[in-house]
Amino acid sequence: MLVALLLTCSGGAAGAAGAAGEAVRVLGAGVAGSPSYVMAGQPAVLECRFQLEPQELLQGVTWTKDAQLVYRWLPAGRTLENATAGVAAEQRRPGWDVHIARAATAMAGNYSCSVHTDRGSAASRRFHLAVLLVCKARIETEDSTGVNCTVGWRLTCARVFPDLNLTAGVFDADAGKFIDRVTEWTKVVYSDDTFGYHAFKSYHVAEIPKSSVFLWSLSYQDQTPLVTGNVSSGAVHRAWSGCSEPPPPQDASLHVQLLYDGGVGAGTGAGTGADCRGRPRAPVKAVYTCANEILYQDQDHHVDSPASKELVCVNGEWREGDTATPWPVC
């Protein structure tokens, strides 16, 4: 999983006690370096930047999250932390900055720092710390072309936070647009207020162009893309289209027999039936045997022959069924 921090400023005005020019001024607060994202496991520092007047004495710095105390720094290294806020402050210099060892969704909220001196106090503008938990979506292909000529994609996004925007569907690269989108998602809300999604969509073979992909993307509220992925339809189409004629026997004494989903045929067009597009079904196996041997195929399409070599049609290509099996010697 990918966890990131997105920093955006919200409303709130700086305030100060004491005469103008005589008390501390808070210049700003936020994540050190102002990164767009902070990856999980990397240290993040919440900085409170301020300026003291000459001879002004610093008496403390207070951090709040959603108006509740998170961390208070006092002179001589004395600190007070609120452990329930999910933020850990490490003893580093300057001690009034908050060091986050690892981001978690519980840390999301509106933060502010206040600086206290012998002349008064001043508060920073509030900034929103959004913790993004971005899932690595899993796509599973369900090929039912042998039953009802459909192929389906099951998309699972296990855990995200906050509730992000998900887009998925069949995207035609040639046309440069979605030809269909997933509109119905099953949403799960977990006890830690994170979310999970999954959806399933199936299509008939004829509905999907060869140039298309099943595309999914995840974006933040402002449509900023976070992660995306796709599964090409090319391999599925190659499987639908089947294989052309198998290679001729290496030995003139060998005989090749083609096996179809419906049984054994003497050649293309014999016992083939029709594929999902209404064309003659292509063979699924080519079995090479000695010409004087009888080939027997059981109901599970297993071939019983004392000496045979099988080639299997896989994604439009002929491949050896068992590379360890030698070619028959007649």
How would you describe this structure to a colleague?
By secondary structure, the protein is mainly beta. It is elongated and about 105 Å long. Helix content is 4%, strand content 48%. The chain contains two helices and 26 strands. The model is unreliable at 6-20 and 263-272 (pLDDT under 50). The protein has helices spanning 145-148, 234-241; strands spanning 2-9, 15-16, 25-31, 44-51, 58-65, 68-73, 79-81, 98-100, 109-117, 120-123, 127-134, 138-144, 150-160, 165-172, 177-181, 186-189, 195-204, 212-219, 225-232, 254-260, 263-265, 285-290, 296-297, 303-304, 308-314, 317-320. It has three domains: 2-133, Immunoglobulin-like (Sandwich); 136-238, Immunoglobulins (Immunoglobulin-like, Sandwich); 242-320, no CATH class. Strands 1, 2, 5, 6, 7, 9, 10 and 11 form an eight-stranded antiparallel sheet that branches.
Q: What attributes does this structure have?
A:
five-stranded antiparallel β-sheet, mainly beta, elongated, eight-stranded antiparallel β-sheet, 330 residues, Immunoglobulin-like, 26 strands, 4% helix
Can you give me a brief rundown of this structure?
The protein has 330 residues and is mainly β.
The 3D shape can be described as elongated
- The number of helical elements comes to 2
Topology-level CATH name of the largest domain: Immunoglobulin-like
Query: Can you name the CATH architecture of the largest domain?
Result: Sandwich
**Whole-number count of domains:** 3
Our Rg estimate from Cα atoms comes to 33 Å
Looking at this structure, what is the CATH superfamily of the largest domain?
A: Immunoglobulins
Helix content: under 10%
Report the top-level CATH class of the largest domain.
Mainly Beta
**Could you describe the largest sheet, including whether it forms a barrel?**
8 strands, antiparallel
Q: Strand portion, in percent?
A: over 45%
Assembly form of the protein: single chain
* Overall pLDDT: 76
Please mark out the parts with pLDDT under 50 across 5 or more consecutive residues, or reply none: 6-20, 263-272
Q: Would you count the extended β strands for me?
A: 26
Write the element-wise H/E pattern from the N-terminal end onward.
EEEEEEEEEEEEHEEEEEEEHEEEEEEE
Protein name: Immunoglobulin domain-containing protein
Keywords: Signal
Signal peptide: 1-15
Domain Immunoglobulin: 33-132
